[in-house]
Task: structure prediction
Amino acid sequence: MNENIDISVDFAGLRLTNPVFTASGTCGYADELADFTNLNSIGGFITKSITSKPRKGNPAPRIVETDSGMLNAIGLANLGLDAFIEEKLPILEKLSPAVFVNVAGQTIDDYVTVTERLSNEEAIAGFELNISCPNVAKGGITFGTDPDQVTEITSAVKKASGQKILMVKLSPCVTDISIIAKAAVDSGADALSLINTFTAMAIDIETRKPILANRTGGLSGPAIKPIALYLVNKVYNEVTKNTNVPILGLGGIRNASDAIEFIIAGASAVAVGTANFVEPDCTAKIVEGIEKYCQQNKITNIKELIGSLEAN
Amino acid sequence: MTTSTQQKGDFLATVSANRQIGKTFYRLTLEFTDIGAQAFAKTIPGQFAQLDLSNVALPPAEKIPAELSDKADRQILLRRPFSFCNLTTKNNKTSAEILYCVLGPATLRMTTLSAGNTIRVIGPLGNGFSVPENKKTALLVTGGMGAGPLLHLAKFLTTDFPSIIVTAFAGAKTAEDLPFKGQLDNISQNLGFSIPEFATYAIESFVATDDGSAGFTGFVTDSLEDWLNKNNPSPAETIIYSCGPEPMLAKLTQIAQNHKIDAQLSMERQMACGIGLCQSCAVECKLDNSNETVYKMCCKDGPVFDSQLVVFNL
Result:
């Protein structure tokens, strides 16, 4: 740690030691990673989606690798709210990064139930509203692609979230992501995270059937990074630049250079997803890499970098 | 199954050999030193490791099998899971051998690894085979590539449980699809030692091929059932261990149930991480003797499962 370089960030009023998060659904509930990395070296941790009742998830195959990426259709498999509180919260309480709980559901009431129950838990800094999961029949992405529904669900969950930060996770599968981002910000989102995965598919040409049991899945990994970067920059320029709503940028980040691109594009912090599967220690390395970049480029405070994209 | 609290991690391994066996099979030997050697020295048969093959080169075009030429240049992003077929520890070094066959772009790249190359390996992962008390007979049933973890188990059983009599049954479509060095001569075969890799541990072995090009003509499960009917081992003192294609495991589960014999199966699934993060490798399992089912994770709850728990969706 270089004392002359400040890589801590203000994220919707929350002080994070650095701008690196783990992305929801890629690091479980933290206990799974204990053997491989020191999660206390990162700034934020986002849990796998929690729903009010346990969910079994989809049948296998749930994933397929594609060029520079992968499709997943896990189906929001999770242990449910009660078991989460009993079994996982005590583990998350001990973490030093800010913990965000990713909340999912089939109805607005589902989202509100989960948020309300957790709104007084000290271990939690905030919520990430999952209105962009492409792999479930009801809920998920259907909320996130219609600005009126975004307004309705964001306002309802904002009321339920008490003093906690509400971050809304956006889908890239829309005509104009800024319209959705604006609807979320105008109805109370404290932060935005973007992007979730792209709905996509892969076909077995021998059987002529989709490879995933769910037929379609969400595309993630390095393949989506340039698009994610563009969308972060677009939302930053068109929606959040002159507000105090920070962007958590994600999509295909696997090294410090990727993370820095997102920060220059306008993200106040970044999340790492698929890369954790390949290299479970990569978030710690990205934190180090960001610091090194700042040192080499004589940046004393990472704030200088956020949205610092120059014109050609 | 054996739940382990052993140390695991992401270690650098050095390739010490990568030998071709028959037409499509290979044995890759990885050497671990220091903490990696300590961690992998305690690998339980049936546990697995995740190999990072993303930076391994493709073989030259003329060495790429025709059936893979169209997709050989696919990019490799995720690690690939493999169990071990042999493990030796000497002078603070652990050598772990992987039996593999070329099935896609990642295993195709694996064939170009040579002595001195290094790769990153996460492991040892999952729960391996376990040996319940009072067992006197262990029957190892392998289908095609499934022989790997059972060869490791064969060594483990003959070393650590000398009182258990082990017999192996290996099946494949044709003689060419058997992942062994070939068969022993007629004299050895008449004595019941068909497969050199099992004979090394003085384990009797039987071969079955679908087309009869080696050993018994038919499925390995038929050959096992014949043996059970002839030998009638005490069910409580017998255990079946198996790894292979799922239809074979389903049939085996039925046979084990009919004979009231315990069976442990090593299952296979597509995995992104292998460490419980991605939740991809779902294996449908019965829930406490009810009609309800749950998805267990092949990587953390398995890959070895009690046969009575698994729901086969064939």
In short: The mean pLDDT of chain A is 94. Chain A touches chain B at residues 25-28, 32-33, 35-36, 48, 56-65, 67-70, 72, 74, 77, 221-222, 274, 276-281 (CB under 8 Å). The CA atoms of residues 177 and 235 of chain A lie 7 Å apart.
